[in-house]
Structures are given as structure tokens and as C-alpha cells.
Amino acid sequence: MQKKNPQGLKRILKASRYSYQGIGAAFKNEAAFREEIILACVLIPLAVWLDVSQLERVLMIATVLLVMVVELLNSAIEAVVDRIGPEHHELAGRAKDMGSAAVFITMLLCGYVWIEALFI
């Protein structure tokens, strides 16, 4: 007999617990994520405080959070690649490089949005 998956509120609570564990693991194991948390703790209140339009504020905060989301995905890719094996493989290196590139592009987007909102 197949085990029944939780539904409703029980499923949401379990999923929330797994998400919290994922954030905790990233905070514990990923220096880049810790740095991005610190940056978010500075930039998000700054975006709320600055005299910018509501749309600019939303974009400024959203891009900061997007950097963190992409960092979490990059860290997940790296963890899976590292779990498969320590030996160098071209595809493993490519996966890690692409994850890093995604973080970099997201950071560029974040910087661009902030520069546009503040200076242009």
C-alpha cells in the first residue's frame, strides 16, 4: 500500500519547514548567501526609506530578493554536483559555471535597477 501524501494545511506546514531548513542550510554553508542576507538587511529598508516611486521601490526590493533566490538555486546545483562526485567532469563544471553566471547576471540586473531608480 502506497503512503498517502499530506494534503491541505499539513502539506503547507511540511513544505514551510523544508523551506526553512533550506534557508538555514544556505545560511550555514554558503558565505555568498550570508553576504546577500546582510546586503538585503541594508538595501530593503533603504528602498523603503528612499523617496522613489512605488514601482521603483517594488523593483528595487524585488531584484534584491531575486539575487537571493538565484543564489539558493545556484547553491542547490552546486550541492547536487558535489554529491555526485569530487572528480572533475566537464558537465559538472559547466553546471556550476552556469549557476554562477545566473547569480552574476541577477546582480547586474539589481545594480542596474538601483542605479536607474536613484540616479537616472
Write the layout of secondary structure elements.
Blueprint: H1 9-29, H2 31-49, H3 54-84, H4 90-119
What does this structure look like?
The protein is mostly helical and 120 residues long. It has one domain: Helix Hairpins. The protein has four helices and no strands. The protein has helices at 9-29, 31-49, 54-84, 90-119. Helix 1 (9-29) crosses helix 2 (31-49), helix 2 (31-49) runs antiparallel to helix 3 (54-84) and helix 3 (54-84) packs antiparallel against helix 4. The longest helix has 31 residues, at 54-84. 13% of the residues are buried.
Quick summary:
The chain has four helices and no strands.
Number of strands: 0
CATH hierarchy: architecture: Orthogonal Bundle
The major pleated sheet works out as: none
Q: How would you name the oligomeric state of the polypeptide chains in this document? A: single chain
Count of helical stretches? 4
Number of discrete domains: 1
Low-confidence stretches: none
CATH topology heading = Helix Hairpins
Tell me, what's the shape?
flat
Helix content: over 70%
Task: Kindly report how far apart the N and C termini lie.
Answer: 63 Å
- Top CATH class: Mainly Alpha
Q: Which structural class do you get from the secondary structure elements?
A: mainly alpha
Strand residue percentage: under 5%
Mean pLDDT: 94
Rg, alpha carbons: 18 Å
H-E string: HHHH
Cofactor: Mg(2+)
GO molecular function, one term: metal ion binding
Membrane topology: Multi-pass membrane protein
Protein name: Diacylglycerol kinase
